[in-house]
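Example 524.
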Amino acid sequence: MTFQLTYTTMHNPPEELHEKFDNALAELKANLGREFPMYINGEDRYSTEKQKAFSPINTSWHLATYQKGTAKDADDAVAAAKAAFPAWSTTPWQERVALIKKFAHHIEERVFEISAAVALEVGKNRMEALGEIQEAADLILYGANLMEENNGFTIEMDNDPIDDFVSTNISVLKPYGVWLVISPFNFPTALAAGPVGNALVAGNTVVLKPASGLSWGVSLMIECAKEAGLPPGVLNLVTGPGSTVGNALTENSDIAGVTFTGSMEVGMDIYRKFANRKFPHPFILEMGGKNTTLVSKNAKLEDAAIGSLRSAFGLQGQKCSATSRIFVEEDLYEAFVKRMVELTNGLKIGDPTLQANWFGAVINKKAYYDFAKFSADLKKAGTILTGGNQLTENGMDQGYFCAPTIAVDVPIDHYLWKTEMFLPIVMIAPIKNLDEGMKLANDVDYGLTAGFYGSEAESEWFFENIEAGTTYANRPQGSSTGAWPGFQTFGGWKGSGSAGKNGGGPYYLPLYMREQSQTRVKRA
Ligand code: UN1
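Predicted structure in complex with 2-aminohexanedioic acid:
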């Protein structure tokens, strides 16, 4: 297949892709309910307590059964990773890169199977799911290639001039030790694979803790790591609730570094606890967003509306990159809102694993009820032009389906202008001029993604002034979503992230390493 799958090409895939996905989906659906073990020290680990996973598309579909790990499992995983670190970190980086690339290629080979699993488990549409699994492989490969391009990050420095001596100086980047990766529900495989792949390429060993009850994708990913022949203890998987397994992991003093992807509330809580250790440790936080799309009166209306629609409602608004606020210059406001409502009313909603449907289910009961509460609050404060209700027709009452929702006329000091909802709800407001819109866009604790539609000169002004880590101008494929490793780097400013360097970009891999300056002196 010559088609290169990304989040921007996924809107127009070849038919062959659908056939392969349908076959993989049919096979999985005929064999639902598989039990997946944890993976510790190169061995499958089963616990006495289990956790059953059901689909948000239809809660009677028992998808898989996972282990409800314990604090002991967590500690065993860290001990295994610690024991594996000396050999892995001193394995020549070329060998590590070769193994990790093999790992990524195994994921690619199973892209249809893993994406069908993720579509069923998260309730995302097939193209989003296929995109995610291809992205998982690409995020790993990007890190591996970067290691090669930088020759393992050994850099010759200038040699200081000392009479009668020759001083040879190099800078070397080295891994830290056991790296903990805590991954989220919405991109359960890609947002595990990115940190895991980079941590491993760098020479760390890893303990992976996915979002509770959502381990199908990562369990299949672990199978790929096994097939690739990663040595025992190098990559470990522990599943179970954050309150037990998660806490045991973050409290384990042998954890040398952490990558957390999830909400700002949970992330900051772990980060604060981690700061109580004896000395500082690297902590990469990827948190939420309250992302703006800003529309100038000079925007191309159709591009702005289609791009905003995709980013507001793709994956049911459950992306940290989702657009949840749109500010439109007065002259274009009415036409923009009208077109957004038309497009939203035309969305195909239903079982998102089917080719026909674009818009699927929200993740769980809590999200379903949150949606009802936020909708009621918006109805009270302003006007809901479309949506605001949960959906029950055509079998949707079997899962967690909420209508894509557009709210207007909500006072600008309303709490939902600044609260991350993580749901298919977008708020739109008119602005007198772009300066006013920029002020509103930047006046939040978050700074993840942002989109702009307008003239080229205005776009430069937008890039200059917007406080966000991943930004786009005039992109109909998505106003604020759809970053792809190697094309767009992805990361947040302010409350959206701690690293100041983005995933899928040139500065990400070095976050997993610490520098050592080596000076060797000889008499001349
Ligand atoms: C997220 O939005 O939760 O840019 C993660 C995007 C994707 C996903 C990012 N790479 O939309």
